[in-house]
């Protein structure tokens, strides 16, 4: 591997806009193989191999002894990555850090420990460039009071460069998970010092224009006037008129040219030729490409107390719903919702998207033009809960009454839920999102004595041990009596406690899934129970077994560059629906890219295709839903999350690269899945 002479830490001069020939050879003592990975330096680069995805498995490149890497003059750190496997899709992430872990300072001179990363998903034999945008403190440390979510680094003092598989989910040992060549590690571009924030002072304010965009940047889709909004709208309407749904689809988005299976009038699942599919109401194979949060406007930001941030006037209530204002201008009317959802329905067909994903408005479902999923609860607030844990008290009698009748009760309250029970366009229902299964027993042990789950646990313990002394011996505790155990809030650490806790934890989880299933099937036995949207695939044995037992489809939210290597035995081999995934960048004026940052818009589109291709060849996966339809606000939504992750931006302008990529997927996904081979082209 060669490093460009642009690396300031080598005392060579930065060459603006070019890479000098020759470069700098890395010495072997700078290459550190991590956790069972194998590293070999060759004339063509560095060979990196690993059969495990565990957190630290991979390669660390350290600077020369006593020095730091200096990337302060460049725009990107880039490296070419070639997947040497002949049959396995590969994912890899590149990370850099600055600062020490004991640093507490927030000045850009001495920043605390911070890390940024980028990633890539590669088909067998594929070679692409992985680019990491460099968030220089000199560019992005905002003046006092200015919002800054970009997490700037002291890029003149980079600790190391690491290559690994972030957030492991694969089985602990799989041959050839990483088998790649890294080459041409380099700095690219020039830091745009003319656009630096540091030193701007009051000139930085306002930094948000009247359309909700970052004022101090430019990009192709940026809106500069109301006329731009209407012009872009007319351009897109003409494009949509010329782009019907893929000709290979039936009216549901199923495979019209595929095999004819039993038509039941409802969506169901079936394994066909060794691969799970949904089957649409007319008996055609269906693979679900979806988008979450299909809503006219979401995530308004607040301007109260931050009036100087905004170019426009902040309303008295402080609410700044930029997308709502932009859509009013775009459609030329205050009540634009009907027109917006008409356009949305046409967009989905033109973009090759056949499913309305989670958290979408009933407005588009009621049109009856696309299949949809619904969520009956997102951790229901009025259901009995465990204290300080995102999980329910499943042994509270009120929980059984509420969850066991959730669909019936929701249907009484909501027109769309009522319609969905007999609507052939309804695929099925999620219940909850990203529950804290790993903290259930913490919630039980810290609960008060009258918590039904705690009472149930103690009842089981009394049946097993009879005497408190016998429990104390097993748990290595010193409770005076059962009342002291009930009144206590400590969590023992002994092996005896953990064994009993695991058994009760399994009992809690099994009851949860049983009652969720009952809540759907008692009112609509023909509808699919789509699970609880797990956070990732590393779920406990208890979660996997109970989900497989009661869910028709297991849903998993997972933010990675590839899901091709998910263990086919996960969740008992049941059908799996990806509930959330996305990719984002820093090239559209946003302060935060995403949970899966990539280099630019084209790489975002390519990453979308590779991710879906990996899911398409996996025998258990029946769909993948993108989170979310629109970029989040520049200054963050209610919880601060402010990612560039949309199919459209704050002004409702589509990203053309993403639209092209999703259309290619929609047109070709059925033949790609049946072919079962990881080719770069969808065709």
How would you summarize the topology of this molecule?
Elements: E1 2-3, E2 24-25, E3 31-34, E4 38-42, E5 45-50, E6 58-61, E7 76-83, E8 90-98, E9 114-122, E10 127-133, H1 137-140, E11 158-164, E12 178-188, H2 226-241, E13 268-272, E14 275-279, E15 285-286, E16 288-291, E17 301-302, E18 319-320, H3 322-331, H4 337-350, E19 355-356, H5 362-365, E20 372-375, H6 397-403, H7 406-413, H8 415-420, E21 426-430, H9 440-446, H10 452-465, H11 468-475, H12 482-487, H13 495-521, E22 528-529, E23 534-535, H14 541-550, E24 554-557, E25 576-580, H15 601-617, E26 621-626, H16 656-675
Parallel strand pairs: 16-19, 16-26, 20-21, 21-22, 23-24, 24-25, 25-26
Antiparallel strand pairs: 1-2, 3-6, 4-5, 5-12, 6-11, 7-10, 7-12, 8-9, 8-11, 13-14, 14-15, 17-18
Helix pairs in contact: 2-3, 13-14, 15-16
Organism: Victivallis lenta
InterPro entries: GH, Glyco_hydro_42_N
Domain Glycoside hydrolase family 42 N-terminal: 415-561
How does the helix and strand content classify structurally? Answer: alpha/beta
| CATH topology description of the largest domain | TIM Barrel
Unreliable sequence segments: 1-24, 102-109
Task: Average the pLDDT over all residues and give the rounded result.
Answer: 93
- Number of domains in the coordinates? 3
* Total number of helices: 16
Secondary structure: helix percent: 25-40%
GO biological process, one term: carbohydrate metabolic process
InterPro entries: GH (IPR017853), Glyco_hydro_42_N (IPR013529)
Protein name: Beta-agarase
Domain Glycoside hydrolase family 42 N-terminal: 415-561
